[in-house]
Amino acid sequence: MIVRPWTLSRLRPVSPTHGGRAVEPGTVLAARVDRWSRARPLLVDGLLAGVMWLVFGVSSLLGGLPGLVVGTLTVLPLALRRRWPAALLVWSAAIFVVQLVVLPIPLPANIGQAFVIYTVAAHVPSLLVRWSALGAGLAGSLVAGFRWSTEPDRTRNALVIAAFLALSAGLIWLIGNIVRGRETNLRALSEAYARLDENTRQRERFLAQQERVAAAREIHDIVAHSLTVVIVQADGAEYAAGHAQPWDRAQARTVLATIARTARTALTEVRGVIDVLRDPESADDPDGPPVGLTDLGQLVAAVRSAGLPVEVHVDPAAFDRTPAAVGFVVLRVVRESLTNVLKHAGAHAVARVAVERTPRAVEVSVEDDGVGHPVCGPAGTAGHGLDGMRERLRAVDGTLTAGPRPDGGFGVRATIPLAVRGGRR
């Protein structure tokens, strides 16, 4: 029997619709134009300055040649308005002062001062510079009101003109600040999305690493158990072939059948793990097939066929309405523990398996009366069996206690809570 070892977490792609509604084609076009213009600020500002000169600069000829010169010097520098907004503010104020001295009338090119105020308010982060732009606009409005006022009611006309210009400058400055706040919010959102995207990629890498570790642990459990059974059977057969008189063909057939059955089972389970890696959708069932007494009995029978006596004491209710994840962990703990007994307990050892159910957990105990070797690999390094059991139990909030017994042998005790987080295995 194959039990899928884990459930893969999947990140679902975000729908391209906004709020369940399809994006309007006009909105997409506007977004493309906005991105294009932001990517080419000098080109856009140069085109704007050229068009404004053709419309407002040339029409400033109504002030004569001085009007054309002042209009040109006011409008054409707008091509650099987003590159050097503060310097443009100083330049525009100086040209406006020259205009007030040379010409007694307003010019169409004076609309350039409005663009300068807007640009400074929208694109300069310094609060002092932005307030300076507003102050220059209000001061220029007051002076221009008196400069451009006419008789008979000169003072009244000057105040009306100054109030109109000041109100216009204030509104333009306010709009620029609103746009700057919007841009600041968009940049903050863009940075937040970038961090979220990076966190998402890190989470995907972490999940992929978890999946690789889970697959490696599962394959280790399968191969270690199966090869241990095969080695024990092969060693026994080799000894019997060399020393038993006469050679028992029936016994040899049993040994070979056990080896073949164990190898086929291991191959099938490894293929199951690989299939899950290739097709994650096949592991999306959080519950999976139930694990019960039959599976435990088959496992114990396979170990007994390898020559290890195993005493089993199982609470009949141990697997009754038990989550599949809990039953799976119980099965894996018993299998890994018995594999360690086969590998390290020595000859003539007897293993005892006990599975009991409490109101809140299933408790598993696997002990042997062998020589009690530490669980080590070929080079004397610690093996991965106990670490794998601990990781598997940690995933379901379980605990593991393992070590030599006072009267000899080795013991493993695991506690698996019945309330598994999300039923994940």
UniProtKB/TrEMBL annotation:
<protein>
    <recommendedName>
        <fullName>histidine kinase</fullName>
        <ecNumber>2.7.13.3</ecNumber>
    </recommendedName>
</protein>
<feature type="domain" description="DUF7134">
    <location>
        <begin position="34"/>
        <end position="183"/>
    </location>
</feature>
<dbReference type="Pfam" id="PF07730">
    <property type="entry name" value="HisKA_3"/>
</dbReference>
<keyword id="KW-0812">Transmembrane</keyword>
<keyword id="KW-0808">Transferase</keyword>
<dbReference type="InterPro" id="IPR036890">
    <property type="entry name" value="HATPase_C_sf"/>
</dbReference>
<feature type="transmembrane region" description="Helical">
    <location>
        <begin position="88"/>
        <end position="107"/>
    </location>
</feature>
<dbReference type="GO" id="GO:0005524">
    <property type="term" value="F:ATP binding"/>
</dbReference>
<dbReference type="GO" id="GO:0016020">
    <property type="term" value="C:membrane"/>
</dbReference>
<dbReference type="InterPro" id="IPR003594">
    <property type="entry name" value="HATPase_dom"/>
</dbReference>
<keyword id="KW-0902">Two-component regulatory system</keyword>
<dbReference type="Pfam" id="PF23539">
    <property type="entry name" value="DUF7134"/>
</dbReference>
<keyword id="KW-0418">Kinase</keyword>
<feature type="transmembrane region" description="Helical">
    <location>
        <begin position="51"/>
        <end position="76"/>
    </location>
</feature>
<feature type="domain" description="Signal transduction histidine kinase subgroup 3 dimerisation and phosphoacceptor">
    <location>
        <begin position="211"/>
        <end position="280"/>
    </location>
</feature>
<feature type="domain" description="Histidine kinase/HSP90-like ATPase">
    <location>
        <begin position="331"/>
        <end position="419"/>
    </location>
</feature>
<dbReference type="GO" id="GO:0046983">
    <property type="term" value="F:protein dimerization activity"/>
</dbReference>
<keyword id="KW-0067">ATP-binding</keyword>
<dbReference type="Pfam" id="PF02518">
    <property type="entry name" value="HATPase_c"/>
</dbReference>
<keyword id="KW-0547">Nucleotide-binding</keyword>
<keyword id="KW-0597">Phosphoprotein</keyword>
<dbReference type="InterPro" id="IPR011712">
    <property type="entry name" value="Sig_transdc_His_kin_sub3_dim/P"/>
</dbReference>
<dbReference type="InterPro" id="IPR055558">
    <property type="entry name" value="DUF7134"/>
</dbReference>
<feature type="transmembrane region" description="Helical">
    <location>
        <begin position="127"/>
        <end position="146"/>
    </location>
</feature>
<feature type="transmembrane region" description="Helical">
    <location>
        <begin position="158"/>
        <end position="176"/>
    </location>
</feature>
<keyword id="KW-1133">Transmembrane helix</keyword>
<keyword id="KW-0472">Membrane</keyword>
<dbReference type="InterPro" id="IPR050482">
    <property type="entry name" value="Sensor_HK_TwoCompSys"/>
</dbReference>
<dbReference type="GO" id="GO:0000155">
    <property type="term" value="F:phosphorelay sensor kinase activity"/>
</dbReference>
